[in-house]
Amino acid sequence: MNASNIITKLKNRNPSILGQEKFRKYAILLPLIEIGEETYILFEVRSMNLRSQPGDICFPGGKVDKDDKNQRQTAIRETSEELRISEADIYDVIPLDYMVSDFGRIIYPFIGRIKNIKQITPNKDEVEEVFTVPLSYFLKTNPKKYKVNFEVIPEESFPYDLIIGGENYNWRTRQIDEIFYKYNERVIWGLTAKILTHFISLLQKE
């Protein structure tokens, strides 16, 4: 194949994330509700019967289904299923920045408003309970940040003889920030805190 054929074949392609077909994709909704004259953020507490992260605080959301029209639809569908409300009660859904994780996940977060909040009856198979926190709390509260270090440990059969430096190769390790908010006795951290911090930063931009 000559260079001209290569250019013809590739010139109209749109770039994506390398290897994205192997990533697991999730969509999440950061729900806004109004009580009186104040805006609140709704959180879920994951059911203690779940295998993954039981008891953690999170936003509604889940895995993108092949039948979902797009990630926005996933976020609405999952919120509807977890809170047992109509999809019509979820509106003004707007995308935030999506996240690509080194652990093989792409997270698509959205914000959205929920009406008829008195109709919320959490699906107990997935949600232990729900609670709300005033948006104003996060606007005036700086989260605590802690470093987490990652270590590179090759498998036993790793071919050290094929790389410069062998077993003494200087692997690049990294750190990530884990973010913690504490509201009364509730601890909000992990992915939920990262999405929340991103959302608050957008509100605080001049």
From TrEMBL:
Regions crossing the membrane: none
Pfam families: NUDIX
SUPFAM superfamilies the UniProt entry points to: Nudix
Keyword Metal-binding recorded: yes
Tagged with keyword Lipid metabolism: no
Cofactor: Mn(2+); Mg(2+)
All residue ranges annotated as the Nudix hydrolase domain in the record: 22-156
UniProt keyword terms in alphabetical order: Hydrolase, Magnesium, Manganese, Metal-binding
UniProt xrefs under PROSITE patterns: NUDIX
Source superkingdom: Bacteria
InterPro entries noted in UniProt: CoAse, NUDIX_hydrolase-like_dom_sf, NUDIX_hydrolase_dom
Coiled-coil regions listed: none
Protein's name in the database: 8-oxo-dGTP pyrophosphatase MutT (NUDIX family)
Organism: Virgibacillus alimentarius
Species lineage: Bacteria, Bacillati, Bacillota, Bacilli, Bacillales
